Amino acid sequence: MLALYSIKGGVGKTASAVNLAAEAAAAGHRVLLWDLDPQAATTFYLRAKPKVRGGVARLVKGKAAFDKVVRATQVANLDLLPAALASRELDHLLAERRDNQLRRILKPIRDDYDLVILDCPPSLSTLSESVFASVDALLVPIVPTVLSLRTLEQLRDFLDARDIPCPVWPFVTLADRRRTLHREIIASLPERWPLRLSHAIPSASVVERMGLERAPLRAFAPRTAPAQAYRRLWEEIAQRLA
Ligand SMILES: Nc1ncnc2c1ncn2[C@@H]1O[C@H](COP(=O)(O)OP(=O)(O)O)[C@@H](O)[C@H]1O
Ligand SMILES: [Mg+2]
User: Which positions fall inside the AAA domain (predicted)?
Assistant: First the structure.
């Protein structure tokens, strides 16, 4: 299980969750993408409705209940748990259970998927603590700016202070290699962040078109630089998971 996570909003978590999930699905993995952000952008990109009858309480009731809320998407091998489950209700559910609750909630469908990807809201909350305890790694998008690096340090400090052993795998998004500062920040990453993923996602307007096409890049612009960067990024992640 992986999470796209950052304390910061607008850094490409959702774009990355959708594109990486689509790449993993295209590589033949059975993927479940869980939209944990009440803003429901992932749900929108995958053409689903952010409404689930019975609500989140239903999820803990086992596999039959799960099958009623999980949606197939237009992408083969990719299923979606829509937002709207991401609510105060979910926070309550997580608060009353301990530790790796998300993993436990997903237990009934563990055998149905090879990979679960969580698209997280930009916050530190009960939900994020449960994410930290449940995932194999946090994929943290970094826009190459000083402030973005600072929030990465803040996340590191938070995890260290609480002895949370969750690996942090930063990767660069919205990169503009024409800008000196971007190049410098990208070059400085490996020293401080040995676990950083090496493939950067370039800044390109085609990524914004995902909102119009309501599809991952590989479905409508597979030859563009960001689509290929996401494919290579996924291959790098897959190698680490193997
Ligand atoms: N590589 C990119 N190039 C250009 N725009 C991007 C890129 N990645 C994301 N965006 C745009 O930036 C905005 C924020 O991205 P999003 O994935 O929603 O961030 P988050 O989920 O972290 O809030 C969106 O409008 C999205 O289309
Ligand atoms: Mg988002």
Answer: 2-159
